[in-house]
Amino acid sequence: MPYTLLDPSCTDSSLKSKCALAVMAKAPRPGKVKTRLSPPLTLEQSAALNVCFLRDTTQNIAEVARTSQAAGLISYTPVGDESLFDGLLPEDFALVAQRGDGFGERLLAAAEDILLCGFGAVCLIDSDSPTVPAEAFRQAVEELNRPGDRIVLGASNDGGYYLIGLKAPHPEPFVNIHWSTSTVYAETVSAITSAGIELVELPLWYDVDDGETLNLLRDELLGEIPPPFTGMPGYSAPHSRRFLLDLFGAGK
For the chain, where are the E strands, in sequence order? Predict the structure, then answer.
């Protein structure tokens, strides 16, 4: 099914009370997504697992949105591949195209465009963390719905982050960051605090981008072993769990 395509040049004032929970996602083509998971997976398996991650993350967000002032979006790339998302997302999701070159530029542009669409706040969420607790998303929405300016940040255990939430398109968190390194979170926190913007930190979680973190996901979903850095229960991620069961069987 086709989804609504949002146009940042057309502001909808009725969205002002909503926080957009926007997943940053590439269209799921084999060889273009989750390539660091091959090996141990094939490129086709990596792309199939990416689809599971999208299904689980957007299902989690949709459940949160039903009970909070939030709405689910996909900030996607490349333009022209919109049809590859057909049938993968909850029916009330919308799409907004990414623009820009570098990763930081794309993040800032996504925040700018989604806020221009009329939303009162936006959370940019990675597509590699299918078990983020729903409570983390709820906390982000609640913090951004409070009066006053602030930025919400959810750290990943590899030194990056799985979520950044803003009420205004502050450039500071996206400039002069050494992306794809273990210092991204620390550099982002430093940039926010140096700019004098209030920071709210969410629970620590993890993303799945290599064989080691795939094993962490496998332990969590098949072995019911929570990540070692938290006692907080993660989202059940039924699509990813089913994929791992088919791939590895019921044993850990």
Answer: 4-5, 19-26, 70-77, 94-97, 121-125, 151-156, 161-166, 199-205
Task: Measure Cα distances from 231 to 53, 64, 212, 224, 227 in Å.
Answer: 22, 21, 20, 12, 7
Give pLDDT, residue 9. Answer: 96
**Predicted pLDDT of residue 22:** 98
Cβ contacts of 141 within 8 Å, gap of 6 or more: 19, 21, 64, 68, 69, 70, 121, 123
Encoding tokens for residue 100? 């820009």
Q: Which residues of 216-238 are buried (b: 16+ CB within 10 A; e: fewer)?
A: bbbebbbeeeebeeeeeebbbbe
Six token digits for residue 195: 């700019």
For residues 155 and 185, the answer to whether their CB atoms sit within 8 Å is: yes
pLDDT of residue 250: 64
Question: Which residue type occupies 138?
Answer: R
Integer Cα distance of 21 and 37 in angstroms = 26
Cα angle, residue 137 at apex, residues 131 and 142 outer, rounded to 5°: 165
- Burial code (b: 16+ CB inside 10 Å, e: under 16) for 4-42 equals eebebeeeeeebeebbbbbbbbbbbebebbbeebbeebe
Walking along the chain (252 residues) 10 residues at a time, the average pLDDT comes out as 90 96 93 87 92 98 97 96 94 96 96 98 97 98 97 97 98 97 98 98 96 95 92 95 90 52
Domain annotation for the chain: domains and CATH numbers:
4-244 (3.90.550.10)
- Reading the block at residue 230, the tokens are 């938290």
Looking at 43-195, which runs of residues are DSSP E strands?
Answer: 70-77, 94-97, 121-125, 151-156, 161-166
